[in-house]
């Protein structure tokens, strides 16, 4: 370890710590002065700084040698432009195409900032790097580890997948953290002794994604924890200059560094882009044919949801196309996700089916093809997906599959964004129908059929929720043919049901559709097993299937049944669910058109009649709580002094009313006065709420800090009980928009877990992991937070790593 270059000589004998520090400070002071001078003279426009060596007088020897030993010599354009400005302390909005080296453009300034501030482990958190996904955070961390290896800073990865407490212990000593926003917020809110009050520099990679609706609440809350006087760097291939975003991060006069804004294309020039028009029902055939024809390649196939990914992966696996298949989505266990990314990284030939969880930033080496089997939600997503190939001077090819109804709209969107794309046709002889194989398989394996049904439902839902109706035309798609192309015996019936959820999804559009988060939240088991066509022959497999999925289906099913009486057929802004299929002689409560004959009907006082057409409904009659839904609303009365009952709002005498002036005027007056009142009250409420929140947090942190200081005597449970103080604690531990945090929190609610039908990759990996035992840390000073030390050796390595400074 070239300790010299790090300015931190390695002591031969037991050092006197303070003495050493003094020496170091003095020497560093002189060096720093020189650095500052060199930085002030940097001029990115001069065109003189082309290599990292040209930069060497303006950066620390540690960074310079880290870059050198990682074989980075020439700077890319964005690095040339952004690094000097960032070194000068400017806030930066950086934009450059995918694969053009943005990571180093922010990592070098991060290391340098802390170096010049002479940051030590005692100074706490100095730099925070936000990533929208765990995979990208891991990758950034790896690059940081490489180029920062000669520095003495401690760096950690905070992405969840472990309990808060486990992460918390080591977090407190970290200087640089790479993290996902939601998880970071959790720690800032809940971890005793951890704060960001000293933060020097904040980085947002994939900044436009982090600033969008999916992360809004987490990011806004996070920023409240950060000091205003800090440097902020934002990077993306699709950077937005939104003023509101700048305001949210309190950026003042940022430098806009856009190296490709005059380029003729928004995508790398080494990328060839094509599209194929293939009707939805033929999509899987086309995809299978493509994979068969390219078994010697490395391919990523993007699909719109985790369920699509699972079904396509499982069914293609049965078909054995002759290329190793992998699949990745946000609902997999963290260990499995990492293992799969590693495997695909290392693979020479492989086909990875994935959601948008790897659409951004991930730098898989040597990907030949990016296939977008499901159309991306917008042109920006398209740019990021295809950006997984043709990275940094290498070549790549991309193919987009479009249904005829999507062609015109989508191509218009792409042209508008300067994306050069050409139409191609699939060779007739390369076409291969797998519909029959899928039908056979779905018949043989009820589990696969079940996955198919879920995939179907999630696809219809994603199309329905897409915002761009010029591209996604729900009614133009042939849903029956699509269902049958998946091998399903019938089309799962779907219905858009009005409900809260649609608002939630609309407010966080990316959560619902593209699936960084892969929340898979609502439709697990939405398939209604009772609605199967009566004439269909029930096989023993069908019965088995029903049994297998009983626990998954029952809660959802009963909800559907109970809500039945309240649904209406307003399909406009509805939410998808399975429509309850009524038997022929049943009563159609949904529309009220069918004659009521066989079922028992009870008037409960509400607007609707309660129809007892099933055992469940009969049972519900016994439950006060359930029946409360069906009773009409009661009204509240007030009593005057004479004991007479009045409605709370009673109409005023018309004469009196008229005397007070014209109605319009009165209304306006009332509105004005109420507006003022509400505004005032709102400000007060917000202030109060903020203050309360802060007080509670401080209190809890203080108490936990005391407990920690108090040491062994304290029941470790106390801290956990303390969580009860924060009314938002549970909410925070729930999955955030845009991020799957299902396994992030220690107070994890019992996950709705479907039974396992297939051997899960994570099973092998868990086992492998266990047999390998604790992973040994590399002897560097950069310490990973994502691994719990499992052996004494680990613990020692960890301590050594920290103290090695
Ligand atoms: P972006 O964030 O712009 O998509 P990355 O930072 O992930 O791009 O870099 C893409 C690839 O280019 C990575 O494999 C990285 O190692 C490589 N790279 C970046 N900068 C340089 C450089 N100066 N010299 C050589 N390779 C580089
Ligand atoms: Mg990047």
Automatic annotation (TrEMBL):
What EC number(s) is this enzyme filed under? Answer: 3.6.4.13
Biased amino acid composition, Basic and acidic residues: 664-688
Could you list this entry's UniProt keywords, alphabetically sorted. Answer: ATP-binding, Helicase, Hydrolase, Nucleotide-binding, Nucleus, Ribosome biogenesis, RNA-binding, rRNA processing
Q: Known InterPro entries for this protein? A: DEAD/DEAH_box_helicase_dom, Helicase_ATP-bd, Helicase_C-like, P-loop_NTPase, RNA-helicase_DEAD-box_CS, SPB4-like_CTE
Keyword check for Transmembrane: no
Task: Tell me the ranges covered by the Helicase C-terminal domain, including all copies.
Answer: 283-432
Q: Does the keyword Nucleotide-binding belong to this entry?
A: yes
Subcellular compartments = Nucleus, Nucleolus
Q: Look up the domain of life of the source.
A: Eukaryota
The ranges of region (Disordered) come to 1-30, 498-530, 654-788
Q: For this protein, what reaction is catalysed?
A: ATP + H2O = ADP + phosphate + H(+)
Which GO terms of the molecular function aspect are on file? ATP binding; ATP hydrolysis activity; identical protein binding; RNA binding; RNA helicase activity
What cellular-component terms does GO give this entry?
small-subunit processome
Query: Which biological process terms from the Gene Ontology are attached to this UniProt entry?
Result: rRNA processing
Kindly give the Pfam families that the UniProt entry links to this protein: CTE_SPB4, DEAD, Helicase_C
Question: The Helicase ATP-binding domain covers which part of the protein?
Answer: 83-257
Q: Where is the composition biased (Basic residues)?
A: 689-700, 769-780
Gene3D superfamilies cross-referenced by the UniProt entry: P-loop containing nucleotide triphosphate hydrolases
Protein purpose: RNA helicase.
Q: What is known of its domains?
A: The Q motif is unique to and characteristic of the DEAD box family of RNA helicases and controls ATP binding and hydrolysis.
Tell me which PANTHER family the record gives: RNA HELICASE
Family statement: Belongs to the DEAD box helicase family.
Q: State what protein this is by name.
A: ATP-dependent RNA helicase
């Amino acid at each position: 370890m070239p300790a010299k270059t790090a300015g931190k000589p390695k002591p031969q004998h037991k050092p006197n710590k303070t003495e050493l520090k003094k020496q170091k400070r003095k020497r560093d002071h002189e060096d720093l002065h020189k650095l500052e001078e060199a930085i002030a003279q940097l001029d990115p426009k001069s065109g003189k700084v082309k290599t990292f060596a040209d930069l060497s007088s303006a950066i620390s020897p540690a960074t310079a040698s880290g870059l050198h030993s990682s074989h980075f010599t020439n700077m890319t354009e964005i690095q040339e432009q952004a690094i000097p400005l960032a070194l000068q302390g400017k806030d930066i909005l950086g934009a450059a195409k995918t694969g053009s080296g943005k990571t180093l453009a922010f990592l070098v300034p991060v290391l340098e900032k802390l170096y010049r501030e002479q940051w030590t482990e005692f100074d706490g958190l100095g730099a925070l790097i936000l990533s929208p996904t765990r995979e990208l955070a891991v990758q950034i961390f790896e690059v940081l580890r490489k180029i920062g290896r000669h520095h003495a800073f401690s760096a950690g990865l905070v992405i969840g997948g472990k309990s808060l407490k486990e992460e918390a212990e080591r977090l407190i000593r970290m200087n640089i953290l790479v993290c996902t926003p939601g998880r970071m917020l959790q720690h800032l809110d809940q971890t005793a002794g951890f704060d960001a009050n000293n933060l020097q520099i904040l980085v947002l990679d994939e900044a436009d994604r982090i600033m969008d609706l999916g992360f809004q609440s987490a990011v806004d809350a996070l920023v409240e924890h950060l000091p205003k006087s800090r440097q902020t760097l934002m990077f993306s291939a699709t950077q937005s200059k939104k003023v509101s975003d700048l305001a949210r991060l309190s950026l003042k006069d940022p430098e806009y560094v856009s190296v490709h804004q005059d380029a003729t294309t928004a995508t790398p020039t080494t990328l060839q882009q094509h599209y194929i028009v293939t009707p939805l029902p033929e999509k899987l055939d086309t995809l299978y044919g493509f994979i068969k024809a390219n078994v010697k390649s490395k391919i990523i196939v993007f699909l719109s949801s985790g369920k699509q990914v699972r079904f396509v992966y499982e069914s293609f696996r049965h078909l054995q196309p002759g290329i190793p298949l992998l699949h990745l989505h946000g609902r997999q266990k963290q260990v499995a996700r990492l293992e799969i990314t590693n495997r695909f990284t290392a693979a020479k030939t492989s086909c990875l089916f994935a959601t948008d969880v790897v659409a951004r930033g991930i730098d898989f080496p040597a990907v030949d093809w990016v296939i977008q089997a499901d159309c991306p939600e917008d042109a920006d997503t398209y740019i990021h997906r295809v950006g997984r190939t043709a990275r940094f001077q290498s070549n790549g090819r991309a193919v987009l599959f479009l249904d005829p109804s999507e062609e015109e709209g989508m191509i218009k969107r792409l042209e508008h964004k300067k994306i050069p794309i050409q139409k191609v046709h699939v060779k007739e002889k390369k076409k291969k129908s797998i519909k029959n194989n899928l039908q056979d398989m779905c018949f043989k394996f009820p589990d696969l059929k079940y996955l198919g049904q879920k995939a179907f439902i999630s696809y219809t839902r994603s199309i329905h929720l897409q915002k761009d109706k010029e591209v996604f035309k729900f009614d133009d798609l042939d849903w029956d043919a699509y269902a049958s192309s998946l091998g399903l015996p019938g089309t799962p019936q779907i219905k858009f049901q009005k409900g809260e959820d649609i608002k939630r999804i609309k407010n966080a559009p990316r959560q619902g559709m593209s699936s960084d988060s892969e929340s898979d939240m609502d439709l697990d088991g939405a398939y209604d097993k009772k609605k199967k066509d009566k004439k269909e022959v029930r096989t023993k497999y069908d019965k088995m299937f029903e049994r297998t999925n009983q626990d998954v289906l029952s809660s959802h099913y009963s909800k559907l049944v109970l809500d039945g009486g309240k649904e209406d057929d307003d399909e406009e802004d509805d939410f998808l669910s399975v429509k309850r299929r009524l038997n022929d002689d049943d009563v159609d409560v949904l529309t009220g058109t069918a004659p009521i004959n066989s079922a028992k009907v009870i008037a409960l006082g509400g607007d609707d009649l309660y129809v007892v057409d099933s055992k469940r409904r009969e049972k519900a009659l016994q439950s006060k709580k359930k029946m409360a839904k069906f009773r009409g609303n009661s009204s509240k009365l007030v009593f005057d002094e004479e004991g007479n009952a009045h409605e709370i709002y009673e109409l005023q005498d018309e004469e009196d009313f008229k005397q007070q002036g014209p109605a319009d005027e009165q209304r306006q007056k009332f509105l004005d006065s109420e507006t003022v009142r509400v505004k005032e009250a709102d400000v007060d409420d917000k202030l109060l709420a903020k203050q309360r929140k802060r007080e509670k947090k401080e209190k809890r942190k203080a108490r936990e800090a005391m407990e920690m200081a108090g040491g062994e005597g304290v029941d470790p449970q106390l801290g956990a009980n303390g969580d009860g103080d924060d009314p938002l604690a549970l909410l925070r531990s729930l999955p955030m928009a845009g991020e799957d945090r299902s396994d992030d929190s220690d107070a994890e609610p019992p996950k709705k877990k479907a039974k396992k039908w297939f051997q899960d990759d994570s099973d092998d990996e868990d086992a492998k992991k266990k047999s390998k035992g604790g992973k040994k840390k590399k002897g560097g000073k950069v310490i990973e937070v994502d691994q719990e030390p499992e052996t004494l050796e680990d613990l020692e390595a960890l301590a050594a790593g920290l103290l090695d400074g």
